[in-house]
Amino acid sequence: MATVGMSLTQFLLEEQRNIPESKGSFTSLFNDLVVAAKIISREVNKAGLIDILGAAGTVNVQGEEVQKLDILANDTIVNTMEHGGQLAAMASEEVDDFIPINKKYPRGKYLLLFDPLDGSSNIDVNISVGTIFSILKCRTGNDATTEDFLQPGVQQVCAGYILYGSSTMFVYSTGHGTHGFTLDPSVGEFLLSHENIKIPDDGKIYSANEANAENWFPGTQKYIRGLKDRSRGYKSRYVGSLVSDFHRNLLRGGVFVYPSDKKTKNGKLRLLYEANPLAMLVEQAGGAASTGTERILEVTPTELHQRTSLIIGSKNDVKEAEELWSEV
Ligand code: AHG
Ligand code: MN
Ligand code: MN
Asked: Domain ends where: 194, 229, 255?
């Protein structure tokens, strides 16, 4: 039985003890990730004081402007994770190809996929950003190729995010519920604050970038119009950092919608670094995640940086959206 205030490391150890085949390699990988999270949290908290704000002057594989903190977060994860010996390779939203493990380090059987800094357009204005991660097993041993990363989300062994908000939180799932930990800066540890999170079946919040409404397909337009019926009591809340919007809706109930539309046929968000990990977390909390026509976790990816349409949140809200989605 976990107690409030238990450290993330202790909690994970206890959880892994109940899995007979667990040999400790996952725990060791996870602990390295916790260290990376603490380092990024420290740096994000200094934004404004040291020269890490603003654009880096390059664009990434998706044609988006890269921020200095995107690079810092990316490099922190790669440098912290690559010598642990548990990874076969990594893949990052900010890097075109997958990232092999430097030859001087041993390799293991896991793959780490991540969005180093989600919501980067919000960094300069002090709004919460986050890191999202997904862990898969490399099915072909420890000599990874791109194909090894192209597994549907149901295969994830762990997923989570770190939210650099009014406090820093680490939320994760290994398929045994979704749990949240808050960083206590005075002891430098993530302590259990939200055990076994359950998202309400019905929400009262919807999150969408309504500036795109003109490009939405009729089903999306009809769905959002329905939520505006004042007798239903919905509020609109949209920060523009997926992690932050998702976290609020996870705790309060609600739905986040970033659909494919007439302009962006495949949607904006990334399946492997954003949609899959959050879909695992929401399902483990009793919610749902869909493309509009398909369960996110069952989509078989065909490319590393694949985008997807995403509706994620409270179970009944996602169901309602799915019912209207294909309407023309
Ligand atoms: P990233 O900063 O990792 O590129 O992700 C940005 C994403 C996501 O965080 C957010 O929900 C969405 O972009 C916002 O997009 P719009 O500005 O188009 O609303
Ligand atoms: Mn992102
Ligand atoms: Mn990002």
From this structure: 194
The answer to whether 311 and 291 are in contact (CB under 8 A) is yes
What residue numbers bound the domain in which 69 lies? 8-194
For position 1, what pLDDT does the model report? 59
Each residue of 188-202: pLDDT tens digit? Answer: 999 999 999 999 999
Question: What separation, in Å, do the N-terminal and C-terminal C-alpha atoms of the chain show?
Answer: 51
Q: pLDDT tens, 95-131? A: 999 999 999 999 999 999 999 999 988 888 889 999 9
Q: Is residue 199 part of a domain?
A: no
Contacts of 304 (CB under 8 A, 6+ apart): 91, 97, 98, 146, 149, 150, 272
Q: Residue range 36-51: average pLDDT?
A: 86
CB 175 within 8 A of CB 154: no
Largest Cα–Cα distance of the chain, in whole Å?
A: 63
Ligand 1 atom with least separation from CA of 241:
9
Is pTM beyond 0.90? Reply is yes
Ligand number, closest to the Cα atom of 274? 2
Closest residue by CA, ligand 1 atom 17: 240
Alpha helices in the chain (DSSP H): 8-17, 25-44, 68-81, 146-149, 218-227, 242-252, 276-284, 315-325
**What pLDDT, in 10s, does the model give residues 154-172?**
999 999 999 999 999 999 9
> Does some domain include residue 309?
yes
Q: What separation in Å is there between the alpha carbon of 178 and the centre of ligand 1?
A: 23
The verdict on 184 and 221 lying in the same domain is no
Ligand 1 pocket, residues with Cβ under 6 angstroms: 64, 93, 115, 118-120, 209, 240-242, 268
* Number of folded domains that form the chain: 2
